[in-house]
Structure formats: C-alpha cells, structure tokens
Amino acid sequence: MSKRTFKIVILPGDGIGPEVVAEATRVLEVVSASSSDVEIKLETHDFGGCSIDKHGEPLTAATLEACKLADAILLGAIGGPKWGVNSKVRPEQALLALRKALGLYANIRPANFASDSLLAYSPLKPSVARGVDIIVIRELIGGAYFGERKELGARAQEDAAWDTMIYSVPEVQRITRSRRQVASPDPPLPVHSIDKANVLASSRLWRKVATETIQNEFPQLKLDHHLVDSASMLIVANPKKLNGVILTENLFGDILSDESSVIPGSLGLLPSASLAARPLWPNTAHRRSSPRRVYEPIHGSAPDIAGQGIANPIGTILSAAMLCGTRSVWRSPAKAIEAAVEGARRQGDRREGLRTADLGGSSKTKDIGHKVVEILKATL
What is one Gene Ontology biological process annotated in the Swiss-Prot or TrEMBL record? Predict the structure, then answer.
C-alpha cells in the first residue's frame, strides 16, 4: 500500500528563522522516514521581509495558495529593522494576511518550565517563578488589529489617527469554545478571562458572552475575570495565580502572551500553534477532517544574532512536535520528539552540556538539532 502524503509548507522567514526551521525540518524528515504509512512532503516558500526583498510583497499569491492547500504550516520568524515600522510594505502584514485568509482565529501559547534547572534564567525570583504553568489563548483575527482605521494625514485637517476595536457575539463564542483544544487534566484547568470591561464596550460584550458560553457549554470549568491591567501586574508579581488558561482578545493577548513567555527565561524554548475553525478549501490530494494550523516558536527574528548559528532551536522543534501531535498517526512520534528534546536538555543541565547562548552556554544551533535528531533516530 502506498504512503499517504502529508504536505507541510515551510516558511523560514527572516533573521534566525531559517536557522531554527532547518533543525525542525531535520526532525520532520526523521519522522517521515520512520513512518510506514505516511510521507511528509515539505515545500518551502518566501514569507515576510525576505519576500519583500525578492518579490516586492510580504505574502505572494503563490505562497498563500500553497498555504491554503497545505495540511499544516511551520513558520520561523519575520521582521527586522531593515523593514521599519514607517515602511508602507512591512513583513508583519504577511502574518496578518495569512491569519485572515486561513481563518486562524486562535493562538495557543504555553509558558512553563521544562525543568527547575531553568529557574535560574527567569527574570523572576525562583520562589515566584517555580510552578508557573500558563497557557494563553489569544483571539487572532478580530479587535483593533482588524478594525477600521485611519492613518495620520498630510493636511492640517487630518491631524488625527484612529483604530476601532470591534467584537461580535459569534467571535467571542468561537474563541471561548477553543478552550476544548487544550488537553485538560482532571480536574480541568481553570479559565481566566482577561478584558477591560470597566472602560470598553467591546470588553463588556466579551465578558458577558464568555461567561454565558462557559456556563452553558462547559459548566465543569472554573471561570474568573481579570482586568488587563490587573492581569499584567499578576504575571510579574504572582503569576501562579493565573495558572491554567488565560483567554483574551487580540491586542491584550499580544501583550500578555509576550509578557508571560519571558517567565521561563528564554523565548527560544517555547512553541505555539494558531488554529482554524475548519478546512476552508478542498485539498485535491486527499480529504482532511481536521482544520489547518500554523506552528511557530514564540520568539522573534532576532536580527542581532542572525547568521551566527547560536539561536536556540528548541521552540521550533517543539512546534514541530505540536504539529505531529494533532495527527493520530503521529502522536507517538510527537511524544518521541518531546522526549528527544528533554534528553538533549538533560545533557544541557550538566556543566559542559548542550546549551545555547540564551541559556548561558556556547553550543551552536546545529549542535542542539543534531543531538535531538540523534536521540530521535534511536527511539523511532
């Protein structure tokens, strides 16, 4: 029987993106080679700043079409000072357009410690950081980033700029229901809904609809509400109070997910996934029953270290593990990838072990990738 093909579009992006994605790609190739019934087909495309340089736009029609027909997408990182915020064409426009086109409405981002040995790298005191285990679910395609806006004009009478933050009942219901995408222990993780209901009308709608949806559809879940300014203080003063699932809208989630992600000490360690509600286009190769998703590390393009081969690829490799974990035929390889990362990390706990510069070591990006692949090959 011939192997079923699973198409993954690779978007290395800018800065350190190509370096860390290369190591995750090696991991996916090992998984594909070890499978008797599924073959991974990798297809690389320009995205972000590198696409601007080559094609004059951050997301070409060809790249978008490839993403629409893919089973999953693995993204590195985009952006850099080369393409400044005042440029009319910016790398970040590619990400917003991709989210909208694919219906990627929810981003899931964890913030936790794989080992207590990493507590020393947290900006928080060990007594405050120990035991933090937060998952941020951020709404991705609504709110201020996608509302109507007006830029500052050149004429005197156009001396103002504005953005609008709009949310509908169905949008809030959809993101609240995405809570089911997070595997839960027994008892289930509590949900902390974050808003600014004391000031914003959209937040008052958010709080009302989130409460009704949880009460009517997930009565077993514990739900509480925090104002965004209070939540931002808790994340640095007593983050364990927010252990569980943080559920919030686009702008607040952008800020709070970045704030919580620095608690583990290195942005290079953590993966993330962006989810679509359902397949929006037929795949001519085979029918799919699961929605399209984008997987990426939480870090940025880090142009200051790009090309030096010292970026930490663990977050990208774990993003590949998340990708595999969504497919029943690859749940075992997903766990094997996570175990291989843990094996490489344990070596890093030793004085002369494997650690990249962000964790106080001198290992190269390829050193980490090689060790993970070595352990993975011995396991699969």
Answer: L-leucine biosynthetic process
Question: What does CATH list as the number for 106-266?
Answer: 3.40.718.10
The domain defined by 1-103+277-380 folds into: Isopropylmalate Dehydrogenase (3.40.718)
Spatial contact of 121 and 266, defined as CB atoms under 8 Å apart: yes
pLDDT of 158: 79
**Catalytic residue check, 196:** yes
- Please identify which of the residues 105, 145, 167, 295 carries the catalytic annotation: 145
Is position 71 annotated as part of the catalytic site?
no
The reply to whether 106-266 shares the fold of 1-103+277-380 is yes
3-state helix, strand, coil in the chain (%, to 5): 45, 20, 35
Instruction: Give residue 278's pLDDT.
Output: 54
Annotated binding site for Mg(2+): 229, 254, 258
Task: Find residue 162's DSSP bridge partners.
Answer: 150
So where are the chain's domains?
1-103+277-380, 106-266
Q: What is the pTM of this model?
A: 0.86
Find where tokens 């029953």 sit.
289
Low-confidence ranges of the chain (pLDDT < 50): 279-289
Q: Where is the binding site for substrate, in residues?
A: 99, 109, 138, 229
